[in-house]
Design a protein that fits this description.
3 helices, 119 residues, alpha+beta
Length: 119
């Protein structure tokens, strides 16, 4: 097993560890976060029906100039909360995936909370 394969397995194992404890329903969907080098993506998922209810990507959010990645993540969280309210969703469970609750992931969560989403 080479280093890349080992890294991918560890990442998948971390994500599954979190996901084994977090399940989304229609009333309280799972807020799943994906972070890449360029952007951050968030979606609210109903695991029972296997449907994505709301999704937001940093590429589709007005960043207002040269915003830092943290500021972009916070705006993505706020837009997600706004769209969730329109869809009638007020509560969610947070799925950080394989990422630490730190930096951009934490900024997204704080933005969603400030937008009115409860988790």
């Amino acid at each position: 097993m080479d280093a890349l394969e080992r890294k991918q397995r560890a990442r998948r194992r971390r994500a599954l560890r979190v996901r084994s404890k977090v399940r989304g329903t229609a009333d309280k969907p799972r807020l799943s976060v994906f972070r890449s080098n360029r952007g951050i993506y968030a979606q609210l998922i109903d695991d029972r029906s296997g449907r994505t209810l709301v999704s937001v990507a940093s590429a589709h959010v007005e960043s207002g100039g040269a915003a830092s990645k943290k500021e972009q993540a916070e705006k993505v969280g706020a837009v997600l909360a706004e769209r969730a309210k329109l869809a009638g969703i007020e509560k969610a469970v947070f799925d950080r995936g394989p990422y630490l609750y730190h930096g951009r992931v934490k900024a997204l969560a704080d933005g969603a909370r400030s937008g009115g989403l409860d988790f």
